[in-house]
Amino acid sequence: MYTESHKIFLQAIMQEGILHDEDSKELIITLFDNKQVKNIIYEINAKLQSLNMMIKTVTCEITGDTYWAITSTILQDISSFQIQFSKVKLELLRKIFSEIITATNGCVSSTICLNLCTSLDTKLSKIDATEFLDYIVDKKWLLLKNGQYYIGVRSIAELMPYFKATYDNSLHTCNLCKEVIFFGQRCTHCEAMMHITCLKKYAEVMHPLQCATCKSCIEVDVIGIYLLDLH
Protein backbone atom coordinates (compact mmCIF):
# COMPACT_ATOMS: atom_id res chain seq x y z
CA MET A 1 0.00 0.00 0.00
CA TYR A 2 1.29 3.44 -0.99
CA THR A 3 1.33 5.66 2.10
CA GLU A 4 2.43 9.09 3.30
CA SER A 5 5.78 7.54 4.27
CA HIS A 6 6.34 6.54 0.64
CA LYS A 7 5.70 10.14 -0.41
CA ILE A 8 8.15 11.49 2.19
CA PHE A 9 10.90 9.17 0.98
CA LEU A 10 10.25 10.11 -2.65
CA GLN A 11 10.28 13.82 -1.79
CA ALA A 12 13.61 13.39 0.03
CA ILE A 13 15.27 11.99 -3.09
CA MET A 14 13.68 14.63 -5.30
CA GLN A 15 14.86 17.42 -3.00
CA GLU A 16 18.45 16.17 -2.79
CA GLY A 17 18.61 14.92 -6.36
CA ILE A 18 20.48 11.82 -5.25
CA LEU A 19 20.90 10.03 -1.91
CA HIS A 20 23.75 7.89 -0.62
CA ASP A 21 22.77 4.26 -0.09
CA GLU A 22 23.33 4.43 3.68
CA ASP A 23 21.18 7.57 4.00
CA SER A 24 18.42 5.99 1.90
CA LYS A 25 18.30 2.83 3.98
CA GLU A 26 18.40 4.79 7.23
CA LEU A 27 15.48 6.94 6.07
CA ILE A 28 13.45 3.88 5.03
CA ILE A 29 14.05 2.22 8.40
CA THR A 30 12.97 5.43 10.15
CA LEU A 31 9.84 5.86 8.05
CA PHE A 32 8.73 2.24 7.82
CA ASP A 33 10.30 0.69 10.93
CA ASN A 34 11.68 -2.19 8.90
CA LYS A 35 14.49 -3.04 6.51
CA GLN A 36 12.45 -4.18 3.49
CA VAL A 37 14.19 -1.71 1.20
CA LYS A 38 13.47 -3.57 -2.05
CA ASN A 39 9.74 -3.79 -1.30
CA ILE A 40 9.51 -0.08 -0.53
CA ILE A 41 11.32 0.90 -3.74
CA TYR A 42 9.13 -1.49 -5.74
CA GLU A 43 5.96 0.14 -4.36
CA ILE A 44 7.23 3.65 -5.18
CA ASN A 45 8.36 2.64 -8.67
CA ALA A 46 4.91 1.19 -9.36
CA LYS A 47 3.52 4.71 -8.81
CA LEU A 48 6.25 6.37 -10.87
CA GLN A 49 5.81 4.08 -13.87
CA SER A 50 2.99 6.14 -15.37
CA LEU A 51 5.27 9.19 -15.21
CA ASN A 52 8.06 7.39 -17.10
CA MET A 53 10.28 7.60 -14.04
CA MET A 54 11.84 5.20 -11.55
CA ILE A 55 14.15 5.05 -8.55
CA LYS A 56 17.31 3.08 -9.23
CA THR A 57 20.69 2.47 -7.67
CA VAL A 58 23.91 3.57 -9.31
CA THR A 59 27.54 3.11 -8.30
CA CYS A 60 30.16 5.84 -8.45
CA GLU A 61 32.98 4.70 -10.72
CA ILE A 62 35.58 6.52 -8.64
CA THR A 63 34.63 5.85 -5.00
CA GLY A 64 32.58 2.68 -5.40
CA ASP A 65 29.81 4.22 -3.26
CA THR A 66 26.19 3.35 -4.11
CA TYR A 67 23.50 6.02 -4.49
CA TRP A 68 19.74 6.14 -5.09
CA ALA A 69 18.40 8.46 -7.78
CA ILE A 70 15.19 9.16 -9.68
CA THR A 71 15.71 8.57 -13.38
CA SER A 72 13.62 9.01 -16.48
CA THR A 73 12.83 5.94 -18.55
CA ILE A 74 12.83 8.08 -21.71
CA LEU A 75 15.60 10.11 -23.37
CA GLN A 76 17.01 12.85 -21.15
CA ASP A 77 19.04 15.72 -22.58
CA ILE A 78 20.99 18.14 -20.41
CA SER A 79 18.81 20.84 -21.96
CA SER A 80 16.39 19.81 -19.21
CA PHE A 81 18.70 21.85 -16.96
CA GLN A 82 17.71 25.06 -18.80
CA ILE A 83 15.40 26.08 -15.97
CA GLN A 84 18.36 26.09 -13.59
CA PHE A 85 21.24 27.25 -15.79
CA SER A 86 21.92 29.67 -18.58
CA LYS A 87 22.52 28.57 -22.16
CA VAL A 88 26.24 29.30 -21.94
CA LYS A 89 26.67 27.18 -18.78
CA LEU A 90 24.90 24.28 -20.43
CA GLU A 91 27.18 24.66 -23.43
CA LEU A 92 30.19 24.46 -21.12
CA LEU A 93 28.81 21.34 -19.44
CA ARG A 94 28.22 19.66 -22.80
CA LYS A 95 31.79 20.40 -23.85
CA ILE A 96 33.15 19.01 -20.57
CA PHE A 97 31.10 15.83 -20.98
CA SER A 98 32.47 15.49 -24.51
CA GLU A 99 36.07 15.99 -23.35
CA ILE A 100 35.74 13.37 -20.61
CA ILE A 101 33.94 10.76 -22.71
CA THR A 102 36.37 11.02 -25.61
CA ALA A 103 39.45 11.05 -23.35
CA THR A 104 41.47 7.83 -23.19
CA ASN A 105 41.74 7.95 -19.39
CA GLY A 106 38.13 8.89 -18.58
CA CYS A 107 38.86 12.30 -17.08
CA VAL A 108 39.93 15.82 -17.99
CA SER A 109 41.94 18.38 -16.04
CA SER A 110 40.32 21.38 -14.39
CA THR A 111 42.64 23.62 -16.43
CA ILE A 112 41.32 22.26 -19.70
CA CYS A 113 37.74 22.66 -18.48
CA LEU A 114 38.25 26.30 -17.61
CA ASN A 115 40.03 26.96 -20.89
CA LEU A 116 36.90 25.73 -22.68
CA CYS A 117 35.36 29.08 -21.73
CA THR A 118 37.19 30.66 -24.64
CA SER A 119 35.46 28.34 -27.13
CA LEU A 120 31.91 29.12 -26.01
CA ASP A 121 29.49 31.02 -28.25
CA THR A 122 28.82 33.46 -25.40
CA LYS A 123 31.48 34.81 -23.08
CA LEU A 124 31.72 33.20 -19.64
CA SER A 125 34.33 34.36 -17.14
CA LYS A 126 36.53 31.75 -15.48
CA ILE A 127 35.28 32.95 -12.09
CA ASP A 128 31.66 32.25 -13.11
CA ALA A 129 32.72 28.95 -14.68
CA THR A 130 34.51 27.90 -11.49
CA GLU A 131 31.44 28.68 -9.37
CA PHE A 132 29.25 26.75 -11.78
CA LEU A 133 31.55 23.72 -11.75
CA ASP A 134 31.75 23.77 -7.96
CA TYR A 135 27.95 23.56 -7.88
CA ILE A 136 27.88 20.77 -10.49
CA VAL A 137 30.37 18.79 -8.43
CA ASP A 138 28.41 19.41 -5.22
CA LYS A 139 25.28 18.02 -6.91
CA LYS A 140 27.33 15.05 -8.18
CA TRP A 141 26.89 15.68 -11.90
CA LEU A 142 30.70 15.71 -12.07
CA LEU A 143 33.34 14.44 -9.64
CA LEU A 144 36.55 16.36 -9.01
CA LYS A 145 39.61 14.54 -7.66
CA ASN A 146 43.26 15.64 -7.74
CA GLY A 147 42.52 18.35 -10.28
CA GLN A 148 40.69 16.01 -12.66
CA TYR A 149 37.00 15.98 -13.54
CA TYR A 150 35.18 12.64 -13.96
CA ILE A 151 31.60 11.79 -14.94
CA GLY A 152 29.58 12.09 -11.74
CA VAL A 153 27.31 9.42 -10.33
CA ARG A 154 24.20 11.53 -10.88
CA SER A 155 25.02 11.96 -14.57
CA ILE A 156 25.42 8.18 -14.86
CA ALA A 157 22.02 7.73 -13.21
CA GLU A 158 20.05 10.36 -15.11
CA LEU A 159 21.81 11.08 -18.40
CA MET A 160 22.78 7.64 -19.70
CA PRO A 161 20.15 7.70 -22.52
CA TYR A 162 21.59 11.08 -23.61
CA PHE A 163 25.16 9.77 -23.47
CA LYS A 164 24.24 6.70 -25.52
CA ALA A 165 22.39 8.77 -28.12
CA THR A 166 25.14 11.40 -28.39
CA TYR A 167 28.41 9.52 -27.85
CA ASP A 168 27.56 5.95 -28.82
CA ASN A 169 30.75 5.48 -30.87
CA SER A 170 32.93 6.73 -28.00
CA LEU A 171 31.38 4.71 -25.17
CA HIS A 172 32.89 1.54 -23.75
CA THR A 173 31.29 -1.36 -21.89
CA CYS A 174 32.64 -2.91 -18.71
CA ASN A 175 33.92 -6.37 -19.58
CA LEU A 176 32.46 -7.75 -16.33
CA CYS A 177 29.08 -6.09 -15.61
CA LYS A 178 28.38 -5.21 -19.27
CA GLU A 179 27.27 -1.68 -18.32
CA VAL A 180 28.63 1.52 -19.86
CA ILE A 181 31.96 2.52 -18.36
CA PHE A 182 33.52 5.98 -18.39
CA PHE A 183 36.42 5.35 -16.03
CA GLY A 184 38.06 2.07 -15.05
CA GLN A 185 40.95 -0.32 -15.49
CA ARG A 186 42.05 -1.21 -19.00
CA CYS A 187 43.65 -4.57 -19.65
CA THR A 188 47.30 -4.10 -20.58
CA HIS A 189 47.06 -6.89 -23.18
CA CYS A 190 43.78 -6.05 -24.95
CA GLU A 191 41.20 -3.27 -25.19
CA ALA A 192 38.92 -4.64 -22.44
CA MET A 193 37.88 -2.17 -19.73
CA MET A 194 36.50 -2.94 -16.27
CA HIS A 195 35.03 -0.89 -13.46
CA ILE A 196 37.41 -0.87 -10.50
CA THR A 197 34.63 -2.07 -8.20
CA CYS A 198 33.73 -4.89 -10.61
CA LEU A 199 37.37 -5.90 -10.82
CA LYS A 200 37.65 -5.94 -7.04
CA LYS A 201 34.64 -8.29 -6.73
CA TYR A 202 36.00 -10.42 -9.57
CA ALA A 203 39.33 -10.71 -7.75
CA GLU A 204 37.56 -12.26 -4.75
CA VAL A 205 36.40 -15.29 -6.75
CA MET A 206 38.87 -15.59 -9.63
CA HIS A 207 42.30 -17.00 -8.77
CA PRO A 208 44.55 -16.23 -10.47
CA LEU A 209 42.86 -13.04 -11.64
CA GLN A 210 42.56 -13.00 -15.42
CA CYS A 211 41.10 -10.66 -18.02
CA ALA A 212 37.74 -12.12 -19.03
CA THR A 213 38.51 -11.36 -22.70
CA CYS A 214 42.11 -12.34 -23.37
CA LYS A 215 42.76 -14.40 -20.20
CA SER A 216 45.92 -12.43 -19.41
CA CYS A 217 46.86 -12.19 -15.73
CA ILE A 218 46.00 -9.02 -13.79
CA GLU A 219 48.09 -8.09 -10.75
CA VAL A 220 45.87 -8.03 -7.63
CA ASP A 221 48.35 -5.84 -5.73
CA VAL A 222 48.04 -3.15 -8.38
CA ILE A 223 44.24 -3.17 -7.98
CA GLY A 224 44.49 -2.85 -4.19
CA ILE A 225 46.87 0.10 -4.37
CA TYR A 226 44.71 1.76 -7.02
CA LEU A 227 41.53 1.42 -4.96
CA LEU A 228 43.27 2.79 -1.89
CA ASP A 229 44.41 5.83 -3.87
CA LEU A 230 40.86 6.64 -5.03
CA HIS A 231 39.46 7.25 -1.54
Automatic annotation (TrEMBL):
Enzyme Commission numbers on file: 2.3.2.27
Look up the record and report any one GO term of the cellular component aspect: Smc5-Smc6 complex
Report if keyword rRNA-binding is assigned: no
Q: Which Pfam families match?
A: SMC_Nse1, zf-RING-like
Picking any one GO molecular function of the record gives: zinc ion binding
Domain named Phorbol-ester/DAG-type: residues: 160-211
Oligomer and partners: Component of the Smc5-Smc6 complex.
Q: What is this protein called?
A: Non-structural maintenance of chromosomes element 1 homolog
Organism lineage string: Eukaryota, Metazoa, Ecdysozoa, Arthropoda, Hexapoda
